[in-house]
Amino acid sequence: MRVIFAGTPEFAATALDAIIKAGFEVPLVLTQPDRPAGRGMQLQASAVKQLALQHQIPVAQPVSLRLDGKYPDVAREAHELLQATSHDIMVVAAYGLILPLSALSIPRLGCINIHGSLLPRWRGAAPIHRAIEAGDSETGITIMQMEEGLDTGPMLLKRAIPITKHDTTASLHDQLASLGGEMVVDALQQLVKGPLHAEVQPEQGVTYAAKISKEEAALDFQLNAIALDRRIRAFNPFPAAHGKLEDTVIKFWRAEVVANFDQQAGSGEVIDANGDGIIIACDDGRSALRVLELQKPGGKRLPANEFLKGFSVKTGQIFR
Fold first, then answer.
1. Is 119 one of the annotated binding-site residues?
2. Which residues contact 58 (CB under 8 A, 6 or more apart)?
3. Does 178 appear as a known binding residue?
4. Which pick of 59, 62, 173, 300 has the fewest CB atoms within 10 Å?
5. Sign of dihedral through CA atoms 77, 83, 85, 91?
6. 3-state secondary structure of 272
7. What's the whole-number mean pLDDT along residues 132-155?
8. Domains of the chain
């Protein structure tokens, strides 16, 4: 079976690597155009492009595939390339571009997608972040047949993993990327033998995982500590949750909820600051967060005891 692959970040590169190692022929890879990155803002190839080039796989980087969009000539050229490339199926993982029906219809067996949630839960751009933020007890991977709607296609395979109280988007991403690679290889191997059973997604339980914005990273200490702990974990590594102390923005990388906390304190007020962490009152003193790992501007991520050696945090100060 010949597989065209479309994807961009590390999550997708893990799947592409699994497909290559399983022995499937990949005649073409689609990925997003190179983007400026790093301090020098130099153009950098995506993780998928880098892997494809290591294996001498041809790479195409159209800015759009929509024939009725802003770049019809580019889209038309991409369609012609897909039609001219002998293949059976397209695998899509975190590609980042919309695939119109005209493109989805080209492969003989259609297009399948590796989605980082248990559909129909968390359709959309940020399923891993939103699952942690919402306090979900589990997540997983769904391999689905793609159609025009956003993550609405019939499900071919689904596997769940638990979300622990220590999981961050970074840790969960790596688990799901590995699982996605295993599952897409499983799906392709089964498709070689014949069609997979397709389960239509139920209408009940549909939620939308909106793209994460940098503005969301500013913590609101009027919320309870449980909600704030989830946000800190959901926004690790991006966009990094933070609070503002005086005029300094401090990033919070790891925290825990203080058990049985209830005392007179304002939201965001520092209750204690020592080697065990910085305790901050939340929800008008009805709960509290112990921050265990922090980062000041220009500094490194540090455990609280190390952070406090180089940055003074005093009882009674207010995080806003």
1. yes
2. 27, 28, 29, 52
3. no
4. 300
5. positive
6. strand
7. 97
8. 3-209 (3.40.50.170), 214-310 (3.10.25.10)
